[in-house]
Specification:
This protein is mostly helical. It has helices at 7-16, 21-25, 28-38, 43-56, 60-69, 82-96. The longest helix has 15 residues, at 82-96.
């Protein structure tokens, strides 16, 4: 486990997807939007860190364990996986920041 490799992801998960994230933000998109608005030093690095985490932890259970070490309290529902959830977050951050 290498949490120091992903400080932006650690900040997102620990500060925006903590145990009370739903009470504070109401939905995933609102939490991610707050991260982008409030974490301007971390947000530009998030997509690259998500790419690194997905490549480094190809097994879903290993990825879940890594995210847990970063303070993640979010649990995907239905057919959504952690991999799919992180990919959607990275895409939303890129789009919100005006990237491709």
């Amino acid at each position: 486990m290498e949490p120091t490799r992903t400080p932006a992801l650690q900040h997102l998960l620990g500060a925006y997807f903590h145990q009370d994230w739903f009470d504070e933000y109401g939905n995933e998109d609102a939490a991610v939007d707050a991260f982008v608005a409030e974490s301007q030093s971390h947000a530009p690095r998030l997509s690259g860190e998500v790419d690194w985490a997905l490549a480094s932890y190809p097994d879903e259970s290993d990825l879940e364990q890594y995210l847990d070490t970063l303070g993640c309290e979010y649990v995907p529902r239905g057919s959504v996986t952690y991999r799919g959830w992180l990919t959607a977050i990275a895409d939303r951050v890129r789009t919100t920041m005006g990237g491709p």
